[in-house]
Amino acid sequence: MLPIKIIPISSVLCALFISVSGFRLHLDSLKSKAVWTLHNENNSISTGAAVPGGVYSDLQAAGVIGDVLWRDNDVLTRWVAYDTWTYTASFYVNADNLKYDSITLVLEGVDTFAYVELNGSPVGSTQNMFVRYAFDVKQHLQAGHNELKVTFDSAVLVARNLSQRHFTAPACVPDVYHGECHANQVRKMQASFSWDWGPAFPSVGIWKPIFLEFRNSPVIRSLTTHIEKQDSTWHVRITAHFEGHGKSHHLTGFLSAILSVEGHQNVKIGRDLDTRTRNDGTAEVDMNMKISENMVRLWWPNGYGEQPLYDLNVVFADVQTGSTSHKHVKIGFRTIELVEEDASRILGNNTAGEGLTFYFKVNGYPIFMKGSNWIPSHILPEHSYNKMTIDNLLRSAVVTHTNMIRVWGGGLWEDDYFYRRCDELGLLVWQDLLFACSMYPAHHEFLENVKTEVEQNVIRLQHHPSVAIWGGNNENEVALRGNWYDTETQFDRYKREYITLYVDTIKPVVEALDPTRRYLVSSPSNGIKSEQDGYIAENPYDPHYGDTHYYNYVADNWDFSIYPNTRFASEYGFQSLPSKWTLQTASNLTSDYSVDSEFVAHRQHSPNGYSFIEAQIGRHLALDKDDANYFDKFIFYSQIIQAMAMKVETEFYRQSQRDWYTMGALYWQLNDVWQAPSWSGIEFGGRWKMLHYYAKSFFEPVLVSPRKKVTGDVDVYLINDRFVPITEAKIFVDTFKWDSLVPIKSENYTGNVGPLQSEKQVSLELWDEKNKDEIFMRFSVKADGVSYSPYNYVFPVPLKDVKGLTEPKIKITVRKAQKSSVGQNKFVVNINVDRVVAFLWLETCHIDGRYSDNGLILTEADTEVVFHTHDDVTAAELHTCITENIQYYVNK
Fold first, then answer.
1. How far is CA 835 from the centre of its chain?
2. Does a structural domain hold residue 361?
């Protein structure tokens, strides 16, 4: 390797602006003059098309089909997925453009099986919606008019045919999903064939940008950055990934890098290049940069510090052609490691101290990961990277003190914008590779397809400081060990194929491209212990190792004692229905608004889902099936049940940092893809459920957290997610009767807890058998340096059995305040009550906005919350919305 040179900034800028290495001719509908049309196999349907886009979107825009998310249109439009569709573009090229040495047709995302023709000549085919394809079209392009055709086979039929050749379990999803079979055979969004929270829309289309690239020399396609700290110096290895096309190229010139740092300074390095690319035109070139720690600030997860990002520009000046190629990324400086070491070092030589830890250390600190699981933001992939939707969801996560998002393996490699926003917002990303809840083939063609997919996407995402870990698959280890798909008789075959795919094929690719991050083969798993046990552990749910997914719909989900010890809870959840306002965007038939309607049944994809919700409601809340408002209450009560279940389980995991060194709680799931019952905290369209409001509290950095035990005692924990200890805090315990706002008893206790810790403070006996159905307890904490910590509550008996929880008198007043700092309209809502109110719910109606708090337990006569909205509404309109739709729980 030639020596690295330190060069002046002016030299780099001169090289940067001499000329550029060609240009792009966009073929997108909106960015170019290309005109796209769409037709099916027998030409009975022909219409205009949008690119990027997809067949369902185009047919809906043309009026051929209705709103795909309306009622049961997911089934009624399924014929679309079985037809053959052709996208045709007409565009013009200037004769001078044909003089470039290389002309490449680039398709950044094609869903999924397509044949590409230019001016009647075949130029290539595609078979993976997650792969970027580039085809040499120089010999087929002509001056003037050109015609591009992309013909799609049905992914459903291709999957069926592949399964006949390489059957891999399972054959089909459960019937209640209303889905399609053999999704595991194709490299396509697995959830597009349906899931227990979403419909089947096995779309086809050019779902990402498409363009022609004209150039005379290879370009820097991607940058990867390997950043490690040694003593007081950051060592940055920059790898420039060059791409030509289809032939070897001679790279002769100068490669330079400029990194912006603090104080408006720049660090510059460069090196001469004189090398050849591979026969396919690709090459990788490394440069090493050293940065003093005082030149950059640390990047921190949300809640622990700021997220400074620094511009890195890399330029190649080609002396043969006189052209330059430029690539820019933003990078952050932080260390992160997944620590799996002897647990007895932390917990001592007891049962909990057996096995290994499983926690993330960021910048040297053990951080408890708080957050949720991300599914695609839309079931149609062309809508999944809508920036407004991504911003709304990620900002909503930030508000709840989330510091980690798990991108689930049945969805998508998300768009660059998603990861950029995670970088900027401090959201660490647990990135699953896209394999979920299935066995997968391991024949040569499939493995080579996957290898390309993984290489491209790890290179694309590796530089983001938000990416914390690569996960090989979702639930496939435990599925094989647990015989989920009747694979027991072929266990050896499936284990061999499992290892071939995730260990022999994927693992070396990921670790070669990103050696500083952990590749975890499966989730849940026992982590390193699963690897030592041959990658399929005898018990992948061993609480002494790794991470856990836990769902229990039969037991009482408000009972702390049902939840398992785990080092890291990476999935857990309970269902609820979306609001009636959201359901109204899927049906306007009043007959559909019933738990027994075909519409509501069709939307429930989880087997026995409604019966589980009904059973949980029956444990805690009084709901009469003959109530005239039964359906409205069923929706509302389902959200209460879900919010409280997630509150109890999440607080159990946060408390267990003390006793089991549980170090993560990522509930299932953040968002939705349609208007249906699911585990989400945010409904399709962005409306917050009660769960999401409750997440703001149960993820609060400082929290007093009581645990009701089966004995009737209460253990009181103090949780501190800050870098400083809490000393001599005051923990207040107020006992109320349900019919009064005046506590019948008030006590306080001294609390102390170290930084980044949870500590049990006291065990209390708070009631006796004579009056526990009349009372409840409110907990709060005050401490120096803690500006806010929410109330917490213990209900001694199920609310359906309490006495005194009757109709309150509620007075609502609304006044408009000054706009917020981000330009939103701001309203202050005052709530006056004459007695305790349980789970007071303030509606937003059709106003797009949210409250500072909701689902309130009111123990004071006056409470204020703030409502923020970008909509142009008046205080009177908001007041009407609230008063006409107010909900709360009473025993009647």
1. 40
2. no
Residues 83 and 77: their CA atoms lie apart, in Å, by 11
Identify the CA nearest to 864 among candidates 818, 838, 827, 830: 830
Domain boundary pick from 672, 698, 724 = 698
Counted domains in the chain? 5
| Type of residue at 259 | L
Sheet of 365-367: strands edge to edge?
Answer: 336-339, 359-362, 365-367
Q: Is 413 contained in some domain?
A: yes
Residues 81 and 201 in one domain: yes
Across the strands, what pairs with 372? Answer: 405, 667
Furthest-apart CA pair in the chain: how many Å? 93
3-state secondary structure at position 413: coil
Q: Are residues 116 and 261 in the same domain?
A: no
d(CA 228, CA 54): 42
Domain housing 322 = 9-21+218-331
Instruction: Mark whether 571 is an active-site residue.
Output: yes
Provide mean pLDDT across the span 480-506.
98
pLDDT at residue 4 in the model: 36
**Is residue 432 within 8 Å of residue 408, measured between CB atoms?**
yes
How many separate helices (H) and strands (E) can be counted in the chain? 18, 46
Cβ-based neighbour number of residue 568 at 10 Å: 26
Label residue 71 left, alpha or beta by phi (over 0 means left) and psi (-120 to 50 means alpha).
left
- Rounded to 5 degrees, φ, ψ at 609 are -60, -45
Token pair for residue 25?
Answer: 């001719």
Residues 141 and 272 both lie in one domain: no
> In whole angstroms, what is the distance from residue 780 CA to residue 734 CA?
9
Q: Is 651 a catalytic residue?
A: no
Last residue of a domain, one of 287, 315, 331: 331
Q: List pLDDT tens digits, range 520-571.
A: 999 999 999 999 999 999 999 999 999 999 999 999 999 999 999 999 999 9
Closest CA to 785 of 716, 703, 722: 722
Please give the average per-residue pLDDT across 24-33, as a whole number. 91
CA atoms within 13 A on the CB side of 60: 16
Choosing from 571, 651, 683, 700, which is the catalytic residue? Answer: 571
- 614, two tokens: 């009904």
For residue 184, give the amino acid letter.
Answer: N
The single residue of 475, 497, 649, 683 carrying the catalytic annotation is 475
